[in-house]
Amino acid sequence: MDFLSVNIISAYLTLTIMEVILGIDNIVFISIAVAKVKNPQLKQRLRELGLCLALVLRLVLLFSITWVISLKEPLISILTFEITGKDIILIGGGLFLLIKGTYEIHDTVALEDHPDQLKIQVDQPLWIIAQIGLMDLIFSLDSIITAVGMSRNLYVMSSAIITSIIVMLLCAKSIGNFIDKNPSIKILALSFLILIGVMLIAEGFEAKIDKAYIYFAIAFSLCVESINLKYKSNLKRKNGN
Predict the structure, then answer these.
(1) Count of structural domains, the chain
(2) Which of 38, 85, 153, 192 has the fewest CB within 10 Å, making it most exposed?
(3) pTM to 2 decimals?
């Protein structure tokens, strides 16, 4: 049957893998955003809500593909320099990630106690959902543009997006808990957000940065840190004996 042809299945699998890879940014951000929530059940609900919101936004954008494509049309032209709606969204999202990542790194390293009113504000579910919603929009836009570039079949694109979100829902808790338990990994994750912020700003100004370099740098850093964590674990076990 046509909908089960080799080309369709191949496109679905390839696009699903790509969507999961692109979704890593989303999972890391959501994990950082909910890190300060003390209630484990609330934290898990916020993770799930964030990813469900990402799914809804992706599907809405997918079925509004004409509008998404129109974001590539110039809104502002200064000589040879043009700014599109997509550029404005990417630059805004990049700046937000830079500020968020820098603040969280300072907050993590300083180990300072904040006033109660600030804690309440930072930990408020509505504030967390607002942050997640903003970044879901940025990452969803990137995800949909990638999907459209790889396939023109609406059913393949929507199926791949739904599958990728299900995979992310299954992985989000484990990734979030791992980040929470390992401060050094949290710093790496925050550095990753800053790196993604720089990439989004550069992309907004039409300075393309190959994402493969960024993912390789992060993967390499995680491998080195994993070895370091293993060394510390072995050292602790040896000293304990």
Answers:
(1) 1
(2) 38
(3) 0.69
